[in-house]
Every structure is written in structure tokens, then in C-alpha cells.
Design a protein that fits this description.
Elements lengths: L1 E6 L5 H12 L3 E3 H11 L2 H11 L6 H12 L8 E4 L5 H13 L6 E6 L2 H9 L1 E4 L5 E3 L18 E2 L6 H15 L1 H8 L3 E5 L4 H12 L1
Helix pairs in contact: 1-9, 2-3, 4-5
Bound molecules: adenosine-5'-diphosphate (2 copies) and zinc ion.
The site of zinc ion has 8 residues, from loops.
């Protein structure tokens, strides 16, 4: 299984990536999670990423490409991988092609999560994320068993700094400008699969599982 999950912020990529990773035992590479963890720890990477993330801009290509390259070359990824939130620019997509050629592998499918903008805003505004393990919950659509507490690890659930309304609008704009062009990049290569992601979490998951293997 070698998958790319593509789609607007809040489309449900992280939620599905986690479920796929648990069901099939394949590692998930989420650039957003890696960057947030670095920010929490205050590492050089985190300090570099913070101002971009807080303002809803993309972190520079060379930074994220370096992160993903290192992960993909790790032996953990030999049996497959799920890329969640990468690539997000044409430069990143081209770099990924070079990296994969270099390690003699290729992309299996690119899943394009299609959700209308109104739903996206509802999903993001109700998202609560675990401070410790980054699992995503929703105040209406995906509630934790105990309010404010992560089911997976007991961590505290918080609203992400960049999930505030003004920043969300900026992120959606950046998505349209920088990431949307990847839809044609991958459809021209016959790798793109449309996912109707408007449905509830379990239905979307069933749909994805029916053709990813
Ligand atoms: P979402 O899926 O809700 O958009 P992510 O966790 O994927 O959120 O990304 C959060 C932020 O992290 C982005 O707005 C951006 O600043 C940064 N980021 C994550 N992945 C990338 C990437 N591939 N390229 C550049 N910036 C990224
Ligand atoms: P992304 O990684 O694409 O930014 P997430 O997986 O974090 O998206 O989902 C965004 C928010 O929407 C979270 O609060 C999540 O619990 C919720 N969510 C995810 N998938 C669905 C769905 N199919 N229906 C309703 N809410 C969803
Ligand atoms: Zn947790």
C-alpha cells in the first residue's frame, strides 16, 4: 500500500490515514503532525516552521521534502506508506517522484478527498486535536468518550492555533493556489481516485478500503 491523501484542510485526510494505518499496519507520514510535534518540542525545525503555520502559509518546500525523504528511506517504510498532507505543491510532487525513483518504488494511488467548502468550515471549526498524539476529534461528528480527553492516549484535547477562522480562510486560499494543481498532475498520470468524502467517517473508510489494496 503506497498512498497519497490529497484534499483541502479539514477534508478528513488525517482521520482516514489513522484508520488505514491501524487496519493495515502501514506507517503514516503526516507532515503537519511532524511539524507540530517539532514546534511543541521547540526544536530548530519547529522554530523555523512556526511563523508559517501560525499564519496559514506553507512551510518552505525544502524543509518538508527533507523530512519526507528521510522517512521514506527508513526501513519501516519498506512495506508501504501513507502520505497525509504531502505533497502540497508541484515542487514537492516532483521531488517525491525523484525520491521514489531513487529508491525504486512508485505511488500506488492518490486519493483525492472531495468535500464542499461549507462542510469543510464546519469540520475545521469543530475540530479538537490531542496535544500528545495529535488524534483528531470533532465536537459533534466524532466525539471522544470523555469530553476534552483523548480516547487513544488520555491526552488533553485542544483547538489548533491555525484552526481559528481567519487562518482557516487563508489556508483554503493557499490550498486553491498551491495544492489544487496537483489534481491534474496526478490525473494526467492516471493515479488519481476521487473519494466522496462528504459522507460520515465509517462510510468514507469503507469506500477507501474497497479499492486501495
Ligand atoms: P490540514 O490537513 O488541516 O491542512 P496539516 O496538519 O496537514 O493540516 O497542516 C498544517 C500546516 O502545516 C499547514 O498549514 C502548513 O503550514 C504546514 N504543512 C503541513 N504539510 C505541509 C507541506 N507538505 N508543505 C508545506 N507546509 C506543510
Ligand atoms: P484533515 O487531516 O484533512 O485536515 P481531519 O481528519 O483532521 O482532516 O478532520 C477534520 C475534522 O473533521 C476533525 O474534527 C474530524 O474529527 C472531522 N471529520 C473527519 N472526517 C469526517 C467525516 N467524514 N464526517 C464528519 N467529520 C469528519
Ligand atoms: Zn492522544
Amino acid at each position: 500500500m503506497r498512498l497519497i491523501l490529497l484534499g483541502a484542510p479539514g477534508a478528513g485526510k488525517g482521520t482516514q490515514a489513522k484508520k488505514l494505518s491501524e487496519k493495515y499496519g502501514i506507517p503514516r507520514i503526516s507532515t503537519g503532525d511532524i511539524l507540530r510535534e517539532a514546534m511543541q518540542k521547540g526544536t530548530a525545525l519547529g522554530l523555523k516552521a512556526k511563523s508559517y503555520m501560525d499564519s496559514g502559509q506553507l512551510v518552505p518546500d525544502d524543509v518538508v521534502i527533507g523530512i519526507v525523504e528521510e522517512k521514506l528511506k527508513d526501513k519501516e517504510c519498506i512495506k508501504g506508506w501513507i502520505l497525509d498532507g504531502f505533497p502540497r505543491t508541484l515542487q514537492q510532487a516532483q521531488a517525491l517522484d525523484r525520491i521514489l525513483t531513487g529508491i525504486r518504488t512508485s505511488i500506488g494511488h492518490v486519493l483525492n478527498f472531495e468535500v464542499n467548502e461549507e462542510k469543510i468550515i464546519k469540520r475545521i471549526s469543530g475540530r479538537r486535536s490531542c496535544e500528545s498524539c495529535q488524534s483528531a476529534y470533532h465536537i459533534y461528528f466524532n466525539r471522544p468518550q470523555k469530553d476534552g480527553v483523548c480516547d487513544s492516549c488520555g491526552g488533553r484535547l485542544i483547538q489548533r492555533n491555525d484552526d481559528k477562522e481567519e487562518t482557516v480562510r487563508e489556508r483554503l486560499k493557499v490550498y486553491q493556489e498551491k495544492t489544487q494543481p496537483l489534481v491534474s498532475y496526478y490525473s494526467e498520470r492516471s493515479l488519481l481516485k476521487k473519494i466522496e468524502a462528504d459522507d460520515d467517517i465509517e462510510n468514507v473508510f469503507t469506500r477507501i478500503c474497497s479499492f486501495v489494496l
